[in-house]
Amino acid sequence: MIVDGYNVIYAWRLDTSNLEDARKALLDALDDYAGFTGESITVVFDGYRTKSAASETRYGLIDVIFTAHGVTADTHIQRIAKTSKEPVTVVTADYLEQLSVFGSGSMRLTPAELQILIRQAREKHIALIHRSTLSGKELKKKLYLDAISNN
After folding, report:
1. Of 36, 68, 95, 104, which alpha carbon lies 20 to 30 A from 145's?
2. Is the Cβ–Cβ distance between 80 and 56 less than 8 Å?
3. What's the rounded Cα separation, in Å, for the pair 8 and 77?
4. Each residue of 8-48: pLDDT tens digit?
5. From residue 26, how far is each of 7, 15, 150 by CA, in Å?
6. Model's pTM, two decimal places?
7. Measured between alpha carbons, how far is 116 from 75 in angstroms, rounded to an integer?
8. Angle of CA points 57, 126, 38, to nearest 5°
């Protein structure tokens, strides 16, 4: 999964008065999601307005890329999608980027859809933790109810 970082930050309406905090909030949510699902995630942030060179770092379980001066995240993401040997999922609300992604044979996910997936993964993880804290009769009852509800 490739995430257009600033696009998702603005789509999720994160507080952008401090972009570093907004980036951290996004990266924390995605790192949790990667931990819950095992999904490989790369987040790309625009660096085109900065004077710095491109950089790649690791944040927990996810790869973070800041594009070089003059290169947009959209351009970088489109390049990854076009050169990937396998279809990738790109998270963006940008319509033109979505069209480009579809044209390369990849898939797109909107920021809202990603929020739903993250919420579902968290709920599943919390349920597993809850189940692991049950003991004796409580656990037996929970397992029985789960077994009959899955049929």
Report:
1. 36
2. no
3. 14
4. 999 999 999 999 999 999 999 999 999 989 999 999 999 76
5. 11, 11, 33
6. 0.78
7. 26
8. 35
